[in-house]
């Protein structure tokens, strides 16, 4: 299916660039080492923008299971396409992370810190408290989906998704969420973004990689889905009032 291919391709490029900037700023010996949080959040926003450019004309550019799920709940997307989109997003995220590893393999090999290596692939909380980490992911995704829903109300295209509200607004939305709400968990706000690369970390023969921390993995998977559902609930209140 053409739509699934472009969801895959858009997500692949998004993760290649998004996880790529984490590798660039975090891994030992990289010319970008020490670039910091501002570099990471801006680059992640631009990574999403690039994915939107690729998938937007064909799918509306969801690139995120929480977006597909939220739009379906809001009646703006076909339920029959939700699972195929999610599978495409997961595969794209997995392969994007795989290419990041191959690209930065020499730097993975000389980096000793296991959390730094895992952090290239998956989100890790700054302070591990699963309850508060879960709330953080809910809130971040709530903002993402709510803004998408409100912006799409005034859109001029038939498609609904990240692409329907324009690549630049999407990029800025992701940047501000990262800068304002990303400090606690690393702001997955996207189950595929975390699960695909975390699976890659688990399977790849990364030198001295340590644990993939699967005990935490449910937080960036379920948190965004709950956040999406809550955003749709608020959006329905808006519809009823208007």
Give a description of the structure.
By secondary structure, the chain is mostly helical. The chain has one domain: Glycerol uptake facilitator protein (Up-down Bundle), CATH 1.20.1080.10. Helices cover 69% and strands 0% of the residues. The chain has ten helices and no strands. Helix 1 runs antiparallel to helix 2. The chain starts with a helix and ends with a helix. The relative contact order is 0.19.
Please describe the structure with a list of short key phrases separated by commas or semicolons.
242 residues, globular, Glycerol uptake facilitator protein, 10 helices, mainly alpha
Secondary-structure blueprint:
Blueprint: H1 2-26, H2 37-59, H3 65-73, H4 82-103, H5 105-110, H6 114-121, H7 130-152, H8 167-181, H9 191-203, H10 218-241
Helix pairs in contact: 1-2, 1-4, 1-6, 2-8, 3-4, 3-10, 4-9, 7-8, 7-10, 9-10
